[in-house]
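re: that chain from earlier
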Amino acid sequence: MDTHDIAKLLQTVAEAVIRPRFRALAPDQIFLKGPGDYVTVADRQAEVELTRALNQAFPDALVVGEEAAADQPDLARGLERPEHVFVVDPVDGTGNFVRGDPDYAVMVGELRHGQATRGWIWQPEHGLSYVGQLGAGVERNGHLLPPLQPLARSGRHPVGQVSRSRLVGRCADSLARPLARSRGCAGVDYTRLLEAQVDFIAYKPPKPWDHVPGALMLRELGGVARLTNGAEYIGQLSPHDLIVAADPATWAVAQAVVRG
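^ sequence. v structure.
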């Protein structure tokens, strides 16, 4: 199964398992893992299908899905050790999915020896596929995206996204400004950054299935993905927040925003 086969796998599973339930979920098909943290039958079935296909194609790889990790937390704690790992987010933005909001995504990330090597984001309702490969750039629906341009050349202040609890911050001129709202889906938020619609995103402590694909794609376009303590984000679990930005200077501005 090559890179584009996996992109097709995401689309096939979404068409068979997820989209038929979009705006058609029964109450008994929606569950809460915690306050505001939804899971649905679509999440669970899609993860089973994606995991089965990846296990068949890569029998020596560890496949860690978000829902499996919720049931078995130890699965996510060893991601940096195995030689070959796939992380799977079957429905990223489940809250949006439950509300009938089209901003949800299916995501898979690949790591080898602790380094992200490939990533896939499929937005079923928008028909958008993003595929990133280490050293080979990022494709959107088969076409390479251009590198991000440093903001110092644009002469404008950074516009950022933050988690739901952080909706204002300070930009380069030290004036408090509203920041763009997160779409509640990393698989949509990251693509806004890849498309230069926002300049940075700040997230609460990251989970790898939410961030491995997008962080890889961002770096491929010249961006930065670091924890608030300055450490490069490599897909690890961490107590620190994550900031992803178009360039190092913007990352520094965003770090000041997040730290207040």
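The helical segments are 3-18, 41-57, 66-71, 74-77, 94-99, 186-194, 208-220, 248-259.
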